[in-house]
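Title: [Solved] Na+/H+-dicarboxylate symporter 3D structure

Original question kept below for reference.
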Amino acid sequence: MKGQNKLFIAIIVALIIGVGIGGFVHLQYPESAEPFSKNIKLLGTVFIRLVQMIIAPLVFTTLVVGIAKMSDIKMIGRVGTKAMLWFISASLISLFIGLILVNWLEPGHVTKLPIQDAASAEELLKSSKGFSMEDFVKHVIPKSIFEAFATNEVLQIVVFSIMFGVALANMGEEYSQPVIKLFDIVAHGILKMVGYIMWFAPFGVLGAIAAVVATNGFEIFKVYAIYLRDFFFALAILWLVLLLVGYLILGNRLFELLKRIKAPLLIAFSTTSSEAVFPKLVEELERFGCNNRVVSFILPLGYSFNLDGSMMYMTFASIFIAQIYGIEMTIGQQITMLLVLMLTSKGIAGVPRASLVIIVATCSMFGIPPEGIALILPIDHFCDMGRSMTNVLGNALATSAVSKWEGQLENHGGDM
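Solution (posted by the thread starter after getting help):
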């Protein structure tokens, strides 16, 4: 059995065991659920931290090497333009799907949710206040590249890497080649580490799932069944659209791509972190046949600008909160909200629970009680599973599509 399939099966087994252990603790030892959850969650924390440890150097080295190797500035501009057109189009489609389906399904009108204590949303309310153009600029442009590395600010690392890569591309080979070769070796070394770290993924998945089920039990699925059902139905529609576009561009190779990224999709779903699969996704896309220069250029950008699952969730959740409070919004207001979400979501990429922070800020702007975020906090973990998985799919498709448009997609990648 190939290593990729072994990892996939190990993750599935860990997922089932995690649900079983969590359910057992919740039902048999409810008084111990909280300390148990706190301790077993450490397995997930260790896995996420191991991945976060290598993200900054991997983004920096692969992006610098990718751009420097292009050497043709026109090619950089062309690839970047195609990528941004995809990102903007995909974001708008995702927002529209969320908007249309939440209005059609009306989960807020048929679900009687218990009113949560607004204190649970206090931290999010604080972090969403004061968002301005100044904050946006500070978040995008690094004050210090070392600070950006230390805090894993992917967007800031991307900005610095692009500028450094372009500078190297414009220098003579005598100066640039030794640096490019060094960074290329470092990037491959980090990718080798990815293989070791991914074998800890099943333990991370087990810990994350067991903690949630032990604390909340199976009741949470019943209480929020309608909201979850409608949200995942909306996600299914978004997947259908993304896969249809992917098939039109990639043809039958789309199915090979899905086989390649099945483990990253499952890890993102289980750990609620699309960031956790970034290194593995780089590796699998290159094996699929995408040009490594295109992958190293587009994928880091996608993690900042192309979060399709999160985009759809923002309109869905914002209108849901309005429905819960009986606030009727006109079509004009909803379209304005969509455009606001489109802009603000690009400004705080990399912020923990960014989707929720943006929803709170947007609700405040449109007269919807921002405390309503407390209503969806208990099930946000489960929604985040779907969001993260969709973000990974969207970025894999974007990278593959641009590679194809550039004529840089090999017919046969590495071994499955």
